[in-house]
Predict the structure.
Amino acid sequence: EIVVWEENLPVVNLFITCSTQWRSSGFGATGMDYSAVLSVLRMKGVSKKKWPRLFDDLRILEDCALATMRHFSKTSR
């Protein structure tokens, strides 16, 4: 069971919705496709006023996800 604080729900939902929108190279994931994130924000009707905060929060989740992917990539070799 994972507990998400209510104030974090918008960015967690955005992260989950964009979970298939990763850019990758021969070395694995390199980051999220920000143009796809922008499309999701538009499609979901998120107020433009909320975009900067959501984007900043999303980048924190992205960074943590990339660190986790790198960690498991190294340990699985």
Observations:
- Residues 23 and 29 are 6 Å apart (CA to CA).
